[in-house]
């Protein structure tokens, strides 16, 4: 009788586990089915509305912030461009080609600011301040929240508009043959560049799971403080400078390398796909270490919480 009771208890426990796993799988499927393209558009619209409310509520402060971003980016770009004007080009690139590269760099900056205004790209700030719990309690996947909650088209779109204007100006001065394939290539390289930036940010931010105080601003160091390197053409530089800036610190992939491809200065051979391959490798690496750090965070939690910097 005792053996039978134990057997029946085991069967009951096993059946409960099976039912629980089925319920979990079903709930996951239901949640996944709810995250549609229309749902993401609505979430982006909510973030845009919040951005507009901030602009209208504190227009003076918002305008100063927008102006500061514009001045900072224009100063960065114009410095390199004025050097090209003074010397008639840089490293085999003409003045107009340097302008094209600056336009590409400004477009990347604009996309970064438009979609990353909620510290969702500077993710080490959210991790280091113990603010991931804000995201955990929301009935949305973490990836969806990180993609949508930093969307700021009104206060962050200034650099993107400047980039579009500079791109049109550079293309007209260079008399480039603009085709659908060229436009598609431009979009692909912009997405590739953004993938590299985000993957590198999430890779270094994995340290913040283990050292939240020390690594809170590590993304600022890894992205913002090395961005100046990406605005300078590497043409004419020796190999021992070019290679590290295309591998260890991929600043050469931020603007210079894509500009050469789009200008036709590099043939569309295997080397043209190097940025895509690099983006894939760094994304896989970042995904592994970030998920590992996230599991550590879920088990151990954070030893600090700081409320500032979180948009509520």
What is the structural class? Answer: mainly alpha
Query: Strand tally, please?
Result: 0
Helix content: 55-70%
Q: What proportion strand? A: under 5%
Any low-confidence stretches, pLDDT <50, length ≥5? Answer: 22-30
Q: How would a crystallographer describe the biggest sheet?
A: none
* Terminal Cα span: 60 Å
Rg over CA atoms, rounded to whole Å, is: 24 Å
Overall mean confidence score, pLDDT: 84
Shape: globular
* Order of secondary-structure elements: HHHHHHHHHHHHHH
The total count of helices amounts to 14
What is the chains' assembly state?
A: single chain
What's the short version?
This protein has helices spanning 2-34, 37-57, 59-87, 95-115, 123-128, 132-136, 142-148, 158-174, 180-205, 218-222, 227-230, 239-242, 256-262, 274-300. It contains 14 helices and no strands.
Q: Helices, strands, pairings?
A:
Blueprint lengths: L1 H33 L2 H21 L1 H29 L7 H21 L7 H6 L3 H5 L5 H7 L9 H17 L5 H26 L12 H5 L4 H4 L8 H4 L13 H7 L11 H27 L12
Task: Please characterize this protein's 3D structure.
The protein has 312 residues and is mostly helical. 68% of the residues lie in helices and 0% in strands. It contains 14 helices and no strands. Helix 3 runs antiparallel to helix 4 (95-115), helix 4 (95-115) packs across helix 13 (256-262) and helix 9 (180-205) runs parallel beside helix 14. The longest helix is centred in the N-terminal third of the chain and has 33 residues, at 2-34. Residues 22-30 have low confidence and may be disordered.
